[in-house]
Every structure is written in C-alpha cells, then in structure tokens.
Amino acid sequence: MYVLIAGGGKVGANVARTLLRMGHEVTLIESTADRYERLEPEFEHQVLRGDATEISTLERAGIARPPDLVLAVTGDDEDNLVICQLAQAKYGVDKVIARVNDPRNQPHFDLLGIAPTVCATSSILGLVEHEVPAHGLIPLLELKRDNLEIVEIPVTPGGPADGVDVSQLRLPEGTTVIAVLRGGNAEPATPGLRLTSGDQMLAIVKPGRTDELRKALALT
Amino acid sequence: MKAIIIGCGRVGSAIAGELDRNGWDVTAIDENEDAIDRLGSHWAGGFVRGHGMDLAVLGEAGIQHADAVVVATNGDNTNIVVAQVAKERFKVKCVVVRLLDPARADFYRERGLHVVCPTQHAIAVINDAIRASQEAA
Q1: From the CA of B71, how many Å to the nearest CA of chain A?
Q2: Which is nearest to B53 in space by CA: A104, A195, A192, A122?
Q3: What is the pTM of this model?
Q4: Across the interface, do A108 and B107 touch by the CB < 8 Å criterion?
Q5: Read out DSSP for A154-198?
Q6: Average of per-residue pLDDT across A113-133
Q7: How far apart are CA B69 and CA B98, in angstroms?
Q8: What are the domain boundaries of chain A?
C-alpha cells in the first residue's frame, strides 16, 4: 500500500515508522526545516520537505499516482482539511484520514465531507464521560461511512425503559438495541428481556438521531 | 444590507470602510485587536476579535443574516475553509475569497468559489506591461 503522510510531528513520524516496518511504501511531508533535519537521517528519501497544502509539493510526493491512503496529521486543522479536499477531489484519492486538533473545528470537516477524522481531545472527553457516572447517552463509536453510531444508554430508575420488555421499548426509527449490559455481563437484546434500572443498553443509532433518542428515553 | 469582513488587513479594512461609507451594516473580524485601527475614526460598523474558523465568532458577527462575506485573512487555507463554511453552512449568497496561491485559486474557482487571486492579477498586468512596451519599441 502507498501512503502519503502530511505532517512529520509525533503522530506523522510514528505512523510512518510503523507503516514502513509493516512493509508499506510511505512518503512523509514536513514543512519546517528543523523537523525535516531531524527526520531525514531516519527516513532518508522517504521524507520530503515542503508545504503539503501546495499542489506542487503534493505532486512531488506522488499524489497523482494516487496513493491508497492520505493521512493529514499536521497541527493546523485548516491545512489538514485543504490537503484532504485536494487529495479527494483533485486526485481521486479514495481514502483520507484527517487529524482534528481543535474539536471546535470538527463541524467544518463534517460539513465538507472529510471523514474519518481523529481528535485526541474528543477521544479523551469520551473516555472521561464513560468513567463519570452520568445519566446521559454516551457515544461509543461513530462510523460515518456506514451511517451508523453505537451508543450506550442507561436505564434510569422510573424512566420510560425501567421495567419494560426490551422488545416493547418505544424508540425513534432507525434505533436498535443490540445488547444489555447487566452486572458485568452482556446479554443479547432478545424479546422477553425485562430492563431494570442500572442496566446499560448498547444501541445502533443513525447519526444525528441521538437527540430524538434522548427525548424518547427522557435523558438529560 | 449586511456584510462581514473576515481578516481586517490592508484589503479587508479598505473594503470594510468602503461598504460602511455606502450605508452597509458591516462587521469586521480579526484575530488582532489592533486591526481596528485600520478602520479609521469614521468607522460606524462592528468589530469582533477572534478567528474566522470559530463558529462562535462568526455567530457573534451575525453571519446568519449576512448578505455578503469577504474572506481575506493572511492564511490561504483558513480563507478556503471559512469561505466554504459561509457558503455551505450559512448559505450566504455572496462570498468572495482572496487567495494568494494561483494553484489553489484555480482549484477552488473550479469548485464554485468566487476567488480573487492578486498574484494572478499581478502576473497578468506585468506581462501585459512588458508586451505593450515591446510593441511600442
């Protein structure tokens, strides 16, 4: 597989190193002189100095082949977004992965159809939410390409799900409960399983429908 | 009519001043507070300090009600993102974006953005001037 990586910081350099070790072909693009000089002894001709948002730099790196995968992992979200747009729309690159540095920029990537994205801050926040006993809905995994999201939903005492047979739950269209976590075990959500407060439901939801689901189950 | 000018440098501030004098409701956005000095003492419009990619900043400037948005910060990639956000997310009818790199200017023009590239203009004008002087000789 040929992978083009824009951004030779900790993320880019480590991913490049691992992919090379796995036998893949990699070109790493780094714009700053000092970082490039530190990378060059290790990566030799596989690291290129230049601005990866410049079309001429991308072409020197072989974007026209095109690569099987482009990773835009610089520290600037606007650069990562433009690199992915150029790769997809100008050169027909099939798969791009973008790093989002500031989670407030996530809506821009979503708006312009750049997916998947990886945001360390959002991942950490997700883990924090999972650890903190909350009464809300916890997003576990979002698969934008497949148009689905997996969420964890608590059964709150006296709430609309408490004491109800899982098959009788009234949920928004496109939502399916797949399993119920109870006392450390996961039970498949089959008819006859009665929900009780303290249970956690694992459900598949269409992205953008989580607010409806919160409302249906009277969650905060 | 309401206009938002994102990036209040030489170009942005001059356009903001012109629209302001012509009776537009103008709000300028710049990361640097000092940029307000460029707008002059007769400036009657608004000013929001912040980054053009920040949706909270765009909201504070009133982009929901804007008839025109001009994007002219000193970063081409920021301008590309902000112009697309204004057009696609906020459905602003008139979005004009200044890009310095001719290659990116061509690409985003093809994708439907209204791009102004001063570099392309300068190259064309200089070429014309040289051609004209040779024809005269």
Answers
A1: 14
A2: A104
A3: 0.81
A4: no
A5: E--TTSTTTT-BGGG----TT-EEEEEEETTEEEE--TT-B--TT
A6: 85
A7: 11
A8: 2-123, 134-216
A82, A86, A91, A114: best to mutate for the B interface, most B CBs within 10 A: A82
Mean pLDDT of chain A: 92
Structure tokens at A180: 């119920």
Tell me whether residues B103 and A104 touch, CB distance under 8 A: no
Beta-strand relationship, B46-49 and B25-30: parallel
CATH 3.30.360.10 fits A134-216, yes or no: no
Total number of domains in chain B: 1
pLDDT range class, residue A166, cuts 50, 70, 90: very high
| Pairwise CA distance, residues A152 & A180, whole Å | 9
Q: Does A108 touch chain B (CB under 8 A)?
A: yes
For the segment B76-105, what is each residue's pLDDT rounded down to a tens digit?
A: 999 999 999 999 999 999 999 999 999 999
Q: How far apart are CA B71 and CA B7, in angstroms?
A: 6
Q: Which residues of B lie inside 8 Å of A (Cβ-Cβ)?
A: 53-56, 75-78, 80-81, 84-85, 88-89, 101, 103-104, 107, 111
Q: B102 φ, ψ to 5°?
A: -60, -35
Q: A84 vs chain B: nearest CA distance in angstroms?
A: 12
Mean pLDDT of B104-131: 97
Percent of chain A with pLDDT over 90: 69
For chain B, say whether A53 makes contact (Cβ under 8 Å). yes
Task: Please tell me the predicted confidence (pLDDT) of residue A220.
Answer: 64
**Residue B103 and residue B136: Cα distance in Å, rounded?**
33
The pLDDT of residue A86: 98
A175 Rama sector, left if φ>0, alpha if ψ -120 to 50, beta otherwise:
beta
> Residue A141: its pLDDT value, please?
83
Mean pLDDT of chain B: 97
Q: Which one of A76, A77, A111 has the shortest CB-CB distance to B85?
A: A111
Q: Highest-confidence range of A134-138, A141-145, B121-125, by mean pLDDT?
A: B121-125
**According to CATH, what is the number of the domain A2-123?**
3.40.50.720
